[in-house]
Structures are given as structure tokens and as C-alpha cells.
Amino acid sequence: MPSFGKTNPLTRSYFDEFVECYCVGHIEERKETWSDENPEGRWKKFNYENDILTRDKTSLDIAWIRSGDITDDRTLAEMLEEIEEKASRINDAVAALKELIRDLEE
Question: Which residues 6+ apart lie within 8 Å of 32 measured at CB?
Fold first, then answer.
């Protein structure tokens, strides 16, 4: 997808593919554009029993979309734990800096 801003505004035409795939009021006519043959397709159907419940960590993440070769398979709890750990280190560093500044000012 392109980046949007002043020189490239987000317009209705960027949603045309989604509207076409979504088929308002006709769910049986919805067609996915993603497949093994077309991994660049942006729309994929998921079957609750086969695609979601059978996963190791049942969630509605969209891990089939890849950004390059990188996929982040961490759970939200794991990410939150990492964020808290980093925040703690930052707080420790700020406290140490404050102490150094206090010592310099004395």
C-alpha cells in the first residue's frame, strides 16, 4: 500500500477492491484474493474451526501477512512483558542520570 498524506490523499478508490470482495449482503459471493499462488493478495477468508481453533495460540491475528521475511509470533502478554522490562530499564537509567546531575551540581 502507498503512504497517504497531503500529496497522496486517501480516496474512495483505494477501497474499491475491498468493497468488491466484501459483497455487502451476499456473503456467499465473497472471494478471497490471497492464495499460495498469489501471496500478494490482500483478502483471505478464515474458517473458524479449521483455521482459528486449530492454531497453537487461538487468536485472530493475521500472521499470514508477512512484512518481508519477518513474522512476530509473540503473544500480546509476551510483548507487554518486554515493554515493561524496557520501561524499567529506562526508569533505572533516568534515575542514574538524575543522580549524576545532582552530584555534578553539588
Answer: 21, 41, 43, 44, 45
